[in-house]
Specification:
alpha+beta; Muramoyl-pentapeptide Carboxypeptidase, domain 2; 4-stranded antiparallel β-sheet; 3-stranded antiparallel β-sheet; 9 helices; 9 strands; elongated; disordered N terminus; disordered C terminus
Length: about 300
């Protein structure tokens, strides 16, 4: 009987507890929501970003499915363009072709050449200084001297103008004088001397030129303007002019008996005009040129089968 009397009191207390909880619940939910917002803002400010993998993981846990196309993987490059054709690697600095068809860039002086002094007042590109000095030292008994190295644009212009004047004094017209001068002095902007990669070498004896033609390739230099390549280089034979091209290229040019223009064509067999080099290794019919054979200059005249020593 006592338990039945206490039952209404218990129910009253329990009902009261539920009323308190219902009154408190909205406030608790509001507080929880505020805390969630604060945590979210703090996470963004601290620089933490949600990665695509985290998004996928959360959606899987929540029971949602996401089409694969809606998530972009950061480690997969997106490129709608077709891959470009494979390009030939750029030539190294020491194989730069400089001639009347391939002048130096107009702005090449924007970055001055790092020059090194060689004996007797000339300068060369510092990168060819050591092989040049090795070559000169090896030929020391012949008294080699660099008589012309790097030339400024002003120096090249002066030499070019003086050569034209020289021919005009001999009675040639302006156009004739220019054409003749260009066979000996390159037009400004087309001279290898302006690159610092070429030198003119004289010696105490004429044998220096024989020695250079037979040995310069060992040091990375080539006899740049042979007489039998004038129809390719457009420059008459200059036995004193040597150009640095690196040991590998110099050895091949020497062994094959070709000039720099032909060598560079051979590097790209599929390029335009690549079939011409083999046809141009001999001078045109009737053209006289010179070659070095066993220490002797030999006159080559293609109009005759005979060759005479010089």
């Amino acid at each position: 009987m006592k338990e039945q009397k206490n039952l209404p009191v218990r129910r009253h207390r329990k009902r009261k507890k539920y009323q308190i909880w219902f009154r408190f619940f909205p406030h608790a939910a509001l507080i929880a929501g505020c805390i969630a917002v604060i945590i979210s803002i703090t996470g963004n400010v601290s620089g933490k970003e949600t990665t695509p993998d985290e998004i996928v993981s959360r959606e899987i846990v929540s029971g949602k499915t996401i089409p694969e196309s809606s998530v972009t993987r950061m480690d997969t490059p997106q490129n709608d363009t077709e891959p470009s054709e494979t390009q030939l690697p750029a030539l190294p600095w020491y194989l730069t072709l400089i001639n009347s068809q391939n002048p130096l860039p107009e702005n090449y002086m924007d970055h001055p050449i790092d020059l090194a002094d060689v004996p007797y007042g000339e300068k060369v590109d510092r990168r060819i200084y050591e092989p040049l000095m090795e070559m000169l030292n090896a030929a020391a008994q012949l008294g080699p001297v660099v008589v012309s190295g790097y030339r400024t644009p002003e120096k090249q212009q002066s030499l070019y103008d003086d050569k034209i004047k020289e021919y005009k004094k001999q009675g040639y017209s302006e156009n004739e004088a220019i054409q003749l001068a260009q066979q000996w002095v390159a037009e400004p902007g087309t001279s290898e001397h302006q690159s610092g990669l070429a030198v003119d070498i004289n010696g105490a004896t004429y044998d220096i030129y024989f020695w250079l033609q037979e040995n310069s390739h060992k040091y990375g230099f080539i006899f740049r303007y042979p007489g039998n390549k004038t129809h390719i280089t457009n420059v008459v034979e200059e036995v004193w002019h040597y150009r640095y091209v690196g040991k590998e290229a110099a050895a091949e040019i020497y062994e094959r008996g070709i000039c720099l223009e032909e060598y560079l064509k051979s590097l790209n067999p599929d390029g335009p005009g690549s079939q011409e080099s083999d046809l141009q290794e001999q001078p045109a019919p009737g053209e006289t040129s010179y070659e070095l054979h066993n220490g002797e200059w030999v006159v080559i005249d293609t109009s005759s089968e005979n060759a005479s020593g010089l």
